[in-house]
Amino acid sequence: MLTPSDITKTGQSLWLDNLRRDFLQDGTLSRRMKEWAITGLTSNPSIFEKALAAPFYAAPVARLAAGGAGPEQVFEAIAVEDIRAAADLLKPVHTATGGHDGFVSMEVSPRLARDAARTETEGLRLFELVARPNLMIKVPATREGLAAGENLLKHGISVNFTLIFSVERYRAVTQAYTAGMSWRVKNSLPLDGVASVASFFVSRIDTAADKALAALPGGKPLLGRTAVANSLLAYRLYRELFYNPGIRATGVPPQRILWASTSVKSPALRPSLYMEELALEGSVNTAPEDALEAYFKDGRINREPLESRYAAAEKHFAALAAAGVDFNGLLNELETDGIAKFSQSYDGLLARIASASQKNPA
After folding, report:
1. pTM of the prediction?
2. Of 9, 23, 127, 269, which one is least surrounded by beta carbons within 10 A?
3. 138 catalytic per annotation
C-alpha cells in the first residue's frame, strides 16, 4: 500500500482528474489532498457533462435559466463557481510551492480548437472571470492552440496544453512554451506566477494501437505496451530539454510534462499500470478516483533505470513498425477524435442544461 510519503519520494505531483460540486463542499477534495497527496485538479467538457447529471445541480441550473440565462451562460456560471471553489481549496498548495503547484485547469470551448485568435480571446476572458492566480487555462495542442497558448503565456497566464499524443507534437508544445516565456524575459516581465504543463495522453494510445495489432499476425506480444513506450520517449525529450544547464541559465522554469488519460481501459492490464510506469520525477499525473484508488491500494512503482526503459521503448516501436502498424496515422486520428469527443461532450452538456431548464422552471 502506497502512502503520501511514497509519492513525495517519486518527485511527481498527483492531480485529480475530476470536478464535482459535492466533493468540493463535503470535504472530499480536502481529504484526497491529505490521503492521496493531491496537489492539483483538472477538468474538461466530458467531466462537466457527467457532473451536471447529479441532482445537486438542478436548483442552480433552474435558477439561472429562470433569470434568462441560455445554456452556455448557465454552464459557464456553474463551472466558474466550481473552479473558483477548487482553486481556493488548492491555494495553500500554490502558495507553499511558490506558484509551482496547486493549479486548477479550465478548458476553453473545444469548438474553438481550430481558431487561434478566438481561443486566445476566450482564454483571456476566462482568466479574468475566474480571477484566481492558480487557474490554468486549458487549450488543445493543435497548431492553432499552440499559437494561442504562447500568446496567453506572454500575457502572464498559466497554460495547460492538452490532447498531446505524439512526441513531435510534444516538442512543438515545448517550443511554444519557451517562446512565450523567453518573450517575457526579453521584455523584462516577471516569470513568477506563470506556469505551464503539457498534457500527454496515455491510455488512448494503447486502445488505438492494440486495435490495430489485434488485426495483424504476430501482433499479440506487443499488446498493452505502446502507451508507456510512447510516454517514455516523450519523457526523455522532457529531460533533454528542461534538465540541461542552457535552459536553466535563462531563468525559464521547466514546463512539466503531465500524464493524462491514465485510467487503464483494458482488463488485461494492471488497474494502476500507467501510474506505476510513469511515476517519474518532475512530471504530473492527473487521474480519476478509480486509478488513484488502485494505485494507492496496490501500486508497484517502476524504479528501473531510465536508460534501459528508453531502450526498451525504442525496441518496441521498431517491432511495431515491423508488424505493419502506421503509428503516425493512429496519432493523427487520435487528435481529431479527441477534439470531436470533447466537442460532443460540450454539446451534450448544453443539451442537458436546456432540457433541465425546461423540466424544472424556477
Report:
1. 0.95
2. 9
3. yes
